[in-house]
Amino acid sequence: MNSRTGSPTLNRWRRHLQAVNGRPLATFCAGYLAGAGAGVTFHPLWVIGGCLLLLVVGWLLRYYRLISAGVILLSAAGVWLGAVQGIRYAWQDDLLWRTLPDNDVVIATGEVVTEPILRRGTWRFIFRTDSLATAHQAFRTPVQIWVSVPVERVDTLFCGERLTLEGRLRNPSAQPGARDNDSFTQYLRRQGVSRTLQPYRVQKLATPGWRLPFSRVRRTLIDNLRYHLPACEGHIAAAIALNDRTGLNNEIRESFRRTGTIHILSPSGTHVSMLTVAVWALCRWFRLPRRTSALAVIAIIWLFASVAGGGAPSVRAAVMGTLVASAVVLQRELDLPTSLACAGFLLVITDTGNLRDPGFQFSFVLVAAMVAASGWLGALATNEESPFRRVTRWAIAGIGLSVVCAVASAPLTALYYGQMSLIAPIANLIIALPVQMVTCGGLASACLPWVPEMVTLPVAMSAWLVDESVRLLASLPWASVDAPPPSRAFIAGFYALLFAFLLLLSARASQQRTAITV
Q1: Which of 53, 191, 437, 509 is most solvent-facing, going by the fewest CB within 10 Å?
Q2: CB-based contact 241:225 (threshold 8 Å)
Q3: pLDDT in the model for residue 467
């Protein structure tokens, strides 16, 4: 018997790796994401060494016929291409940070790319310009700038407006008393911002960008939603449904952090999945064909992503939802790992800076953990014939999913917030249903300038329930614990082990299910 093909141990691992061999597109996209993430995060020499090590591991897997040659080539190509792109982005970002003018008067023409926030009489937003002109030289390269404009100089601003700004360009400085990992400078670096600007002259141009109509609609929806609901509930609903957190005070923000539910305040996969389920159920209730229902889902989730202003998480969720719904339209088999990998690949190849965005990291890691654990949790929920035992298993699977999400988000929570939530699995389960009502009902109410109070009452009650639940759970002394920021190497190793463990559990569950069926 050939030791490379007939060993029981090799045969068992070959069965574990069937999912990888059957998903070449997902393998390439996932390899590209891993390479780009490493290139942005680590030193180039470490990245190159890691890529060479992966080639050696791939050759060994191919030698023992655990993975096909095509998968090895695709994964290697993805990792190397991603690493080159990541290193190139990190080098360009560092070069911009060092060479752009500091404390010089500049003239910049560009577009507002984030939703302007009005605080203390000042508009704050990120401004993207393709050219910067000083008295001595001009820079013809895309640059993102953090801009603060008093309302005296411009009364109203929307995302997508094109402006010409004249002011003094400065190097970002940390806020006094802020931790290094949570400082204003580090926040701007993660957003790809290289300089700050406080212009003394602002001129609006007559050719706005494509984001302007959606920004106007978003502002109208927020006003409608707050008009329909009481003040406190209106702030909560606007934050959950439309990513408007300007009405939330520091106390409620800290409560969401302590309970590990801060992710619901940013439109992401949770909101898109809730909206998808609601739209699909409504279409099917009206007995629309499956293809028509899937097309309606695609249209609604892209409208939501356009007006919600959530950035990379909402776009990632919209791309993934589009791929899933397209499988229904084209009558193809649904494959969540491939959809997730393709969504991440499209976002990163469009803008590599998304890899540094905490919202993208939280969104991608949580969804990837849920997909990796789906086989194991699905088998846990459906292995009983008795209705009572099936309900019990569904409850256990729901708790397991919440625990998986809490564990997957723990390193990032410690990195960006300096704490880890111990009550997150319980808190996410408690507020799941009210958040569903606030997301879907709040968006429906916001689309109508006038609705009876009875119609918006469930939305107000759900927002109140979310608020009170989060405050109550956050008041527990053991709700969260302080945690030092982990190193980048620790985070990479943690996620490698976590996903390997979850995929192994799902592979075993799939094999057991196949054996029972046979």
Answers
A1: 53
A2: yes
A3: 92
Whole-angstrom Cα distance, residue 123 to residue 313?
24
Considering the domain architecture, whether residues 76 and 127 belong to the same structural domain is answered as no
**Encoded tokens for 174:** 């940390």
Asked if 252 and 470 count as a contact pair (C-beta separation under 8 A), the reply is yes
Alpha-helical segments (H) within 43-168: 44-63, 69-99
Task: Say how far apart CA 504 and CA 512 lie, in whole Å.
Answer: 12
Which residue among 158, 178, 209 closes a domain? 209
Q: Of the candidates 165, 161, 169, 163, which has an alpha carbon nearest to the alpha carbon of residue 201?
A: 165
Residue listed under structure tokens 């196949």: 514
| Domain identity same for 161 and 278 | no
Q: From CA 101, how far away is CA 104, in angstroms rounded?
A: 6
Q: Kindly list the distances between the CA atom of residue 381 and the CA atoms of 274, 314, 515, in Å, as whole numbers in the listed order.
A: 20, 29, 17
Assigned token pair, 267? 């439109």
The closest alpha carbon to 36, from 340, 320, 346, belongs to 346
Residues 414 and 269 in one domain: yes
Q: Is residue 2 a part of any domain in this protein?
A: no
DSSP 3-state assignment of 261? coil
Cβ atoms of residues 109 and 132 within 8 Å: no
- Say how many residues make up the chain: 518
**By the 8 A CB rule, do 104 and 134 touch?**
yes
Q: What is the pTM of this model?
A: 0.82
89, 123 Cβ separation under 8 angstroms: no
Per residue in 363-389, pLDDT (tens digit) is 888 888 888 888 777 777 666 566 667
Distance, CA of 428 to CA of 406 (rounded, Å): 9
**Predicted pLDDT of residue 142:** 85
Q: Domain of 90?
A: 8-97
CA distances from residue 91 to 36, 40, 229, 293 in whole angstroms, order as listed: 13, 9, 48, 45
> Rg of the chain over CA atoms, in angstroms?
24
- In the prediction, which pLDDT does 509 show? 72
d(CA 476, CA 478): 6
For the CA atoms of 12, 14, 16, 20, the dihedral, rounded to the nearest 10 degrees, stands at 180
Q: Is 287:325 a contact under the CB 8 Å cutoff?
A: no
CB 414 within 8 A of CB 484: yes
For residue 179, the model assigns a pLDDT of 46
Type of residue found at 264 = I
**What separation, in Å, do the N-terminal and C-terminal C-alpha atoms of the chain show?**
27
Torsion of CA 296, 301, 303, 305, to 10 degrees: -170
What's residue 176's pLDDT? 42
Number of domains making up the chain: 3
* Other Cβ atoms within 10 Å of 12 Cβ, number: 12
The tokens describing 312, both together, are 């990379």
